[in-house]
Task: inverse folding
């Protein structure tokens, strides 16, 4: 705002300098009339009356420029008096002996006043235009200052909003991690305590307990892998290492690894015959399938079926051929208020169900491969999550 204040001060000073001063204008006009009269008096006998009349108009013009209309009119009167005293017989008096000289004096006075008035009016218009220009310039400077201040406030507001969003996501991450880690850790701790207590378990029960530990440890490993992948995405270092992958083999490997999650649920794999190889990062697509299948297994009712289907699909707009993979469960489905934000970070839904970083990571991976991922609700109940990946060319 200091720049605006300085500009306003300069504008006021400029306006003060340009404002007409009748007293100064009249003084300069009278001085000009006296100077012209003194300069031309020695040549009075050799020059006609027209030359003094024309030259005496110049001080009137100067008075109009500097002092305005009042100064011009007063100077015109002074010029008429000097013209009468110095150049119209009888010289030295205001009397006019010849009628032609009287007419000349009157014409001179009228013309001098008219010229002085016109010059004063034009000078006033020029000053008004200059003042308007200065005011516009000052308003523009103030406007620029306001715009700059508003932009600074906008940037500050954006920084505050980003910081608030970061705080929200940090809190959500802590809640998600604490919830997702607590369950497997509790199971591992319970099994470890039971084994350490020296309870007499048969070999079958012992192997079952060790299997639980292995399963929960793998679940922890998947959670940590998701978090690490998320950090790579935020750092801009998440790029697929593409290779030719057999989806049927990859899906079978993921289901085998998650086998214990499907003890109470049947898995139905439906692969299109002659399905081509896909051009993907094996590890990343493994993460996508693991997250989707784990979510489906945890929400599917006991005795229900989880369907994993894969088939070729045509890219919209006539693009390259794709393979669509869909995971369908018979669970409670997806709440309408969460569907549009299902794949956003920490917007997956209720605690323990399609939440945390898993689905957000799935979307990032699929989109990095040039595919799409979406969720739909089945008319007969349950949810269907599908994604596409490109075929190996």
Result:
């Amino acid at each position: 705002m200091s720049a605006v204040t300085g500009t306003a001060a300069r504008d006021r000073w400029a306006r003060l300098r340009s404002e007409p001063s009748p007293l100064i204008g009249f003084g300069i006009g009278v001085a000009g009339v006296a100077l012209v009269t003194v300069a031309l008096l020695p040549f009075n006998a050799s020059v006609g009356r027209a030359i003094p009349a024309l030259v005496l108009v110049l001080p009137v013009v100067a008075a109009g420029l500097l002092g305005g209309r009042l100064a011009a009119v007063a100077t015109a009167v002074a010029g008429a008096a000097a013209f009468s005293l110095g150049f119209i017989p009888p010289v030295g008096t205001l009397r006019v002996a010849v009628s032609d000289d009287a007419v000349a004096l009157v014409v001179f006075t009228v013309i001098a006043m008219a010229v002085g008035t016109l010059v004063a009016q034009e000078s006033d218009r020029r000053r008004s235009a200059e003042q308007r220009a200065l005011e516009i310039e000052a308003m523009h400077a103030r406007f620029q200052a306001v715009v700059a201040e508003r932009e600074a406030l906008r940037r500050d507001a954006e920084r505050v909003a980003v910081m608030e969003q970061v705080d929200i996501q940090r809190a959500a991450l802590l809640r998600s991690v604490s919830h997702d880690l607590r369950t497997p850790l509790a199971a591992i701790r319970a099994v470890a305590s039971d084994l350490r207590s020296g309870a007499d378990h048969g070999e079958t029960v012992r192997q079952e307990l060790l299997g639980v530990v292995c399963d929960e440890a793998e679940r922890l490993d998947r959670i940590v892998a998701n978090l690490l992948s998320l950090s790579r995405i935020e750092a801009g270092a998440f790029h697929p290492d593409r290779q030719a992958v057999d989806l049927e083999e990859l899906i079978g490997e993921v289901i085998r690894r998650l086998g214990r999650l499907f003890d109470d649920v049947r898995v139905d794999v439906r692969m299109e015959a002659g399905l081509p190889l896909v051009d993907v990062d094996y590890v990343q697509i493994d993460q996508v399938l693991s997250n989707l299948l784990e979510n489906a297994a945890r929400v599917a009712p006991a005795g229900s079926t989880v369907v994993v289907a894969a088939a070729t699909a045509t890219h919209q707009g006539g693009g390259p051929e794709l393979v669509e993979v869909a995971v369908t469960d018979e669970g409670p489905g997806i709440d309408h208020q969460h569907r549009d934000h299902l794949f956003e970070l920490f917007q997956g839904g209720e605690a323990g169900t399609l939440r945390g970083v898993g689905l957000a990571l799935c979307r990032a991976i699929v989109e990095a491969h040039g595919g799409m991922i979406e969720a739909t609700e089945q008319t007969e109940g349950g949810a269907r999550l599908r994604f596409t990946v490109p075929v190996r060319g």
Q: What stands out?
A: The beta strands are 243-245, 266-271, 278-280, 305-314, 321-328, 373-377, 383-390. The CA atoms of residues 238 and 266 lie 34 Å apart.
